[in-house]
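DM from R.C. (forwarded with permission)

"hey, sorry to bug you on a friday — could you get me a structure for this? deadline for the figure draft is monday and I only need the backbone to look sensible"
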Amino acid sequence: MFGYVRCAADELKIKQWRRYKAYYCGVCRAMGDFTALGRCVLSYDLAFYALLLDYDAHSGIRVRRCGVNAKKKPYAVSEAVDYAAAMNVLLSMGKLRDDIADGEGLKRIPAAALKRAFGKAGQRAENAAEICKEGLSRLRALEEAGCDSVDKCADEFAKMCAKLCSCAPFLQDGGMKRLLSAIGYSVARWVYIIDALDDLDDDIKHNRYNPIAQEIKSGRLNEHQVDEVITRSVYNSLYDALKAAQLLPESDNQPIILNIIQYGLADETVRVTEKRRKAHERSVQGPGT
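My reply, with the result:
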């Protein structure tokens, strides 16, 4: 459920690309306060949330040597970056536990390595930890019950992420909390559904839960219209996210946030749907064609 939220680098100015990377490196460095091993689950998704929560671009940009490759790099420093780092650890542990429950036993190794970091992140961001615990528990209950509505599952995940945005302890403006919640909800809904679509064929093959597969099985969704229906749904979420993001105040972060939603997520949608189209064409043509 991670790795889909990226920018469209070719559409960014050089200074915007550098700023984007500074937030990514900032989240990475902040995760180092929990554990060096935690950086193995670092995600660009949380760089986006760091940019979003620091919507007025108050983060300081510092330059230090990277702990991974020893090169000097700029990195962002702020409460928003620290909060995003805690979110990264909390959500990554939730994802690992979900994978373990789905029978991926090897995920127990990184889960064990993250256990201490998970505890530290929970202490540093108690409110976020409680939101993740409750949200992921409700989502897991739906999945274990074989929920046959991708919209219902996506809504549960999206509500959790929206709440993580609006309940960040350093946010004071009620109007901005509602706006960030709306953006967080729409982007998270897109993430959940695009991930389900990307994994659909593999999940069916290995008999793993997938809400889209359940909708097909129950007759709620025509298997020949899956790509059309799901693609329309995710583009609706992108439209909602973009309209909300356009209301953000002007800052050095706003054009990067808009780039991610308008171009980066749209490119990922095309990548996933094109990959499925080509795979289906190969299966129809048969091996060796």
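R.C.: lifesaver. The CA atoms of residues 278 and 284 lie 10 Å apart.
me: no worries. The chain has a mean pLDDT of 90.
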